[in-house]
Design a protein that fits this description.
The protein is mostly helical and about 280 residues long. The protein is built from 11 helices and no strands.
Length: about 280
């Protein structure tokens, strides 16, 4: 009996085991391995289509300049110093807007996320601002702040504040309640609770908000620079519109697009490094 039991429980020989189905063998579920510089593939594909359309005559050069014309115009703008001067002015405005809007959004998210009274007081006005377009605020901001740099930076800061607040607040409220109970059990104080539980828990939401914020900052910069500016990429484009210089307008559009693309890529790199502990499809 014992010999029979041992014999029946031994694994079957390898030859007798059913072979895995050919279609499923080795198949990996999920998005697959990471592609180095994969974020450039889509823009390069658009560039290829643009070049093909210009070379075949499908795109009228009077309405959309060819890529090689844009490259030549960019070289001329760099040689004259106009591009560097206007680019520096735009980058400074965006940097100041982010420097004001990001801490402001985080502070409001903490006050709202950690207090029901704070949420009742803060969340409504932020959602109202979220629903109001930047162009609708411009006349009021001009009356309050004039048409100088303060108004332009304020437009960017207000635009940045909203996505930072929304996603950080959502990250705070998504923290597992068991961590809160554990913090209470071990007797963490308020400051230690925020530093060791709240901030790490809200980090994924904050970084997602930063991705939206850096893109929104360039969008609001366009609005700000098209109103009575004397420097910046938007000013250069508006001046080109006056003289019908389509190639310079395309240079500005491409520049805005590249700035947004590489800003987002930088935040994604930081996000990937800071959240290595998470096992997700993105990893």
């Amino acid at each position: 009996m014992a010999t029979s039991l041992i014999t029946t429980t031994q694994p079957a020989p390898a030859a007798a085991r059913p072979a895995p189905h050919r279609r499923t063998a080795g198949r990996r579920l999920g998005p697959g391995p990471r592609i180095k510089f994969g974020f450039l593939i889509g823009p390069l594909a658009l560039l290829a289509l643009w070049s093909a359309g210009s070379a075949t005559g499908l795109l009228d050069p009077r309405t959309l300049s060819a890529p090689w014309t844009v490259v030549t115009t960019t070289a001329e703008l760099i040689e004259s110093g106009r591009l560097q001067e206007n680019l520096l002015a735009s980058v400074q405005r965006v940097a100041l807007g982010l420097a004001i809007g990001v801490p402001g959004g985080v502070l409001l998210a903490l006050l709202s996320g950690l207090s029901r009274f704070g949420e009742a007081l803060i969340d409504g006005p932020v959602q109202i601002k979220r629903a109001i377009p930047a162009l609708a605020l411009m006349p009021l901001l001009i009356l309050w702040l004039g048409i100088g740099e303060v108004m332009k930076v304020s437009v960017i800061a207000l635009g940045v504040l909203v996505p930072i607040y929304v996603h950080t607040h959502n990250g705070l409220r998504a923290i597992d309640s068991r961590y809160v109970e554990l913090a209470s059990t071990v007797g963490l104080g308020r400051a230690a609770f925020i530093r060791q539980v709240v901030l790490p828990g809200a980090l994924p939401g904050f970084l997602l908000g930063m991705r939206f914020a850096v893109t929104v900052s360039w969008l609001h910069l366009v609005v700000a620079e098209l109103i009575n500016s004397t420097s910046g990429i938007g000013y250069m484009m508006d001046l080109a519109r006056t003289y019908g210089q389509t190639d310079i307008i395309i240079v500005g559009i491409v520049l805005y697009g590249l700035l947004g693309l590489f800003s987002d890529a930088t935040v994604r790199l930081v996000e990937r490094r800071a959240l290595q502990w998470r096992r997700t499809l993105a990893g």
